[in-house]
Amino acid sequence: MTIAMASAVPQPGAEIFERILTAPSGLVVLQSKDAEALIEQVRVLARHSGQAVYLWQPDTGLGSLREAHARVPDCERLGNALRYMQQSMHFGVYFVRGVELPLSAVDAALLRQLARAPKGHLRRVVLVDAPPALAAHLGDLAAQVSTEDGKPRQLRLRDGRWLA
To answer: In which domain of life is the source organism classified (predicted)?
Structure first.
């Protein structure tokens, strides 16, 4: 009986990942208090589910979260990675972390195109902790998701009082 209960417990990060997948836009701006922990949670989800989930960072380029050493060739620069994402015809969730402003006009245009991705296949580009100016520039093109949205407050007892 405890085995059934353990499997029913949702994995950390699963609720956020589900909100990313159901977002109304191909581009998601994700605000997180602990981006590193969130990426690790998504890595575990990707390994268990077998889904195609990637992470782009300025120092490492584009790589699979499911297979730690699998890198996408020629995707070290943001523009190349965005083109790869745009041309992919397969399911994929691409986390982009460490975007710095100013963006080139080409990169900004690619982000806008990814936001308007065709409905035929599921692809999400997730800007993790994007600079506020970039989020404002994208406006309604990008879905806004926060790790704090819809999260029930956990009460804790401190000095005889319950705190949220």
So the answer is: Bacteria
